[in-house]
Amino acid sequence: MGSELDDLLEQTRALSAQMVSMRDSLAETEVTGFSRDGWVSVTMTVTGQFRSVRVDDTVFRKGREDVEFAVLQALRDAASRLQAITEERVSGLQSMFKQFEE
Length: 102
Fold this sequence. Notes:
This protein is α+β, with helices and mostly antiparallel strands and about 100 residues long. The protein has one domain (about 1-100): Ybab, Chain: A. The chain is built from two helices and three strands. It has helices at about 1-30, 65-100; strands spanning about 30-35, 40-45, 50-55. A three-stranded antiparallel beta sheet has the order 1-2-3. Helix 1 runs antiparallel to helix 2 (about 65-100). The mean pLDDT is about 85.
């Protein structure tokens, strides 16, 4: 019985260390989204902090609505990439928890 408890405690410690590592890695992850034409890019962290917005001079030759639309496209693309990374990391977390089911 003591051996099983020791094994469980060791698994718990390992899982905790993996979760801390995943959290730290996720906090440092950045995604960049682009407008379809590539004139606008938005970089943000997985925690939702925006790091940069880049706008090519070409977009300013268009109308205000085109500029707004290009920025919106870049934001949506960044959000989509963020969601994909989050889902990937969560699936990794789920596989870690499956260790306890075995």
